[in-house]
Structures are given as C-alpha cells and as structure tokens.
Design a protein that fits this description.
The structure is a homodimer. The first copy, chain A, contains three helices and ten strands; from the N terminus they run H-H-H-E-E-E-E-E-E-E-E-E-E. The first copy, chain A, is of the alpha+beta class. Chain A has an eight-stranded mixed sheet with strand order 4-3-5-6-10-7-8-9, with no helix packed on it. The two termini of chain A are 44 Å apart. Strand 10 (187-199) of chain A pairs antiparallel with strand 10 of chain B, so a sheet runs across the interface. The structure holds a DNA duplex.
DNA sequence: TCCTAAAACAGACAAATGTCTGGTATACTA
DNA sequence: TAGTATACCAGACATTTGTCTGTTTTAGGA
C-alpha cells in the first residue's frame, strides 16, 4: 500500500478512537486496523502508540481495549438517584420512588447524593429556575448563606439558609416570595445544593 | 464457600458493572471475579449471564469486555469534551485544548457536543451565571429565540439568537448589556445551548 | 544522489479474556 | 423427604487481543 501524507491518517485514527471512547466502547488494536483497512495489526498499533507518546491518548498496557482518554484531573463518574418526590418520612425511603439516575462527577459515594427537580420561582435571582434539577449532598446542617433543600410541612423546598439564635430562616432569592420562619421542630435540612442543571432542549 | 442470600450478590455485581460502564471502562469477567473475591471465573460469569437474561445487561458475545448497558428508553451516557477556550479557527482544532470531559446523557454522538464555560453576566436573566458550564450541540444555524454560542471577533459568546432579514442579532438576557449586531461575515454560530450546569460547591 | 524517518506490511508469540464441563453445598419447597 | 434451583468452586480450552521482530516502500532533506 502506498503511504498517506504525514500525520493525516494519525489524525483520523485519533478521531476514531476518541469517538469510541466517548461512547464508552474502547476499540481494540485490530478494530482500528479493520476500520482503516490496514493489512497489518502493527500499522494500527504504531499509530496508537505514537498517539500515546504524544500524550493524546493514555493506555493500560497489556489490557484488552486498554486505550483511554488522558484525564486531566477528573473525578470519577457516579450515578446519582433523582427523587420523584420527597416524602415526609426518611430520605432513604424515598429511594423507592425514583425518577432515574443521572451521571455526576464526584469523588463522593453516590449514597451521599441525590437529585431533585425544582418547583416554583422562589430562587429566580440565584439562577435557579422552575424545572431545574438540583444535585444535593445529604447533610443535616449547613452554613448560613448556603443554598439548601429543607423539609417544611412535608414539602421539600430549595432556599437560602440563614441562621439566627435558636432558629433558622429560609430565604427565597426572589423579592416576590416570603421569607420562611419555620418552627425549629417543624423543619429539617435534607442537604446542601452543590449543582444546578437545566435542560433547554433535547 | 458459603452462599450469600439470593439475589444480593447479583445486585451488587450489577451496580459494579454499571458504574464501570458509565465510567467508560467495561469490566472483564475476571475483573468482576476479583472485585467480588470469587475463586472461580464461572461464578462471576454466571451472575453476568443471568443479568443479561434478565435484560439488565446487554453483551457482545465473544468480544473482550463485551458487556453493555441495555439501551431502552433512557439515553446512554457519553463523555463530552469541555473546551478550554474557543479559537478563531475550526471547532475541531479546539479539541487540542481540552479542559477535560463531563458525563452527559444523550443519544447523540459525542462528537456533536461540547462544553464551554460562560464568561460575563450578559445572560443573567436567563439563569445563566458567570462560571456556568453550558453544553452545546454543534450546528451552524438555530431558530430565533434559542440560546446559542456564537463566534464574534474571535471570541465565543453565549446569547439569544434573533433572526432579521439578512442578518442576525445576538441579544443578551440582561438590560445592562448591548445587543450585538455583527456583520454577517464576521459571525459564526457554533451551536445551540442544550443544557446549563452550575457547580455551587465541591 | 544518499540518507533518514515515516508509513505500511508479514508473520508470529504471549497474554488477556470468553467460554465450557463437571462438581459441591445450601436454601427452599412440594 | 426428595427434588429443584441457586451459589459457588476447579480446571481446562478457544478466541480475542496486545506485543514483538523484521522487511519494504516512499517522502523529504542534507
């Protein structure tokens, strides 16, 4: 076979491998070989190893389908359960009523996280719109000024936490909504909002 | 070895495999074996095959690392490249300057998507704050009213697209920012914003 | 022109991995 | 109580896949 211009085939191979890796299906050396019509495995392998040398690919030597995308400081991906509704009872019981799972990059255990869909416009000025999905880290307390999910009168609500002497206040981020001053025994902090997601279109 | 309660180990194996698949690293039969301390490969394999029979996993028989997540309804998770900065040249060249990858649920090819970090407060009223991460579907055009990423004077900007006769307008969602009226030859639409993400805390 | 490096090929070996056959022990149930 | 299904182990074989050595061809520069 005649040779192709320098670097051109390598670029196409990188694109091919990258697509496969992003789709979660690492290719084998021979799959690359076939995809590009090479008559020898080594032709594909030489390109792949060159890409590793260039730092554009990473690999686990000896392992089948061992090529990876070089991770520049990325945390692992976990699946976070999205709660359909938050019941009055324990948060653990809510696991029964799932809306599905969403991928999330975190070093934390997935059991310490949950997702929740936002209702109402009370957090508009904080850039949290109705229908947004918030990802929450479970914790029974939080610092003043942080955005939390609290259970008030059997309903989960997203608000800004303000701590006073013996009680807490739940502030909206929208002047048209009232500040909640719940009885200390009537409120429970479920966790702290650590991420906001909004889908604009499929 | 004593046996464990019915179905319990299987559930944990399913979780393990799913995590690995979502992280883009399909496990081998023996990796599952080691992860659960089985003394025989077949122990792991029996569970995996059972999960396939139950329809909870899919597989490509004979292939190394051939287990997959069955794709029914729910879209698969892909890793979307986050661009560090958007250069004047082609979008493809920007692949060189990556900020990492983020998991994203989509049926679309990962090559059609990219992530970008938002600068400035021009989209405040649309709930898009500085530092937010937008996920963008590559397309050279979009409908009027949609939020797009456009390249104006060698700089990527997130704005609301408005189409006029022979030109386009880029509207901010913040009255304190000006409407951009770029020369048709000086502007290029890179894609449409399909999701907004904001990290509040680690 | 000669030299060097890149690109590709040929053929093989070795390791990783998928698959299979047969066996033991325990729980549940008819 | 016998039967059946599940969970697990032991050992082997076959395929897939990674890796290696050596050769040929061509582009581009000294």
């Amino acid at each position: 076979m005649g040779r192709t211009p320098a670097g051109e085939t390598r670029e196409r191979i990188f694109g091919f491998v990258r697509e496969r890796l992003l789709a979660g299906q690492p290719p084998t050396t021979r799959e690359v070989q076939r995809a590009f019509g090479f008559k020898a495995v080594q032709s594909a392998r030489a390109h792949l190893e060159a890409l590793v040398d260039e730092g554009r690919l990473a690999k686990e030597p000896g392992k089948a389908r061992g090529y990876r995308l070089p991770r520049r400081g990325g945390a692992p991906t976990v699946l976070v359960p999205v709660l359909g509704r938050v019941p009055a009872g324990s948060l653990e019981a809510a696991v029964e009523d799932l809306d599905g799972y969403i991928p999330f990059q975190s070093r934390r255990s997935p059991g310490k996280l949950f997702g929740l869909r936002v209702k109402g416009e009370s957090m508009l000025d904080a850039g949290i719109l109705p229908g947004d999905l918030v990802i929450v880290r479970k914790q029974a307390d939080a610092d003043s000024g942080q955005i939390v999910v609290a259970l008030v009168e059997d309903e989960a609500t997203v608000k800004i936490l303000r701590k006073r002497r013996n009680r807490i206040e739940l502030h909206p981020a929208n002047p048209r909504y009232p500040i909640l001053l719940p009885d200390p025994h009537e409120v429970r902090i479920l966790g702290k909002v650590i991420e906001v997601r909004r889908t604009l279109d499929v």
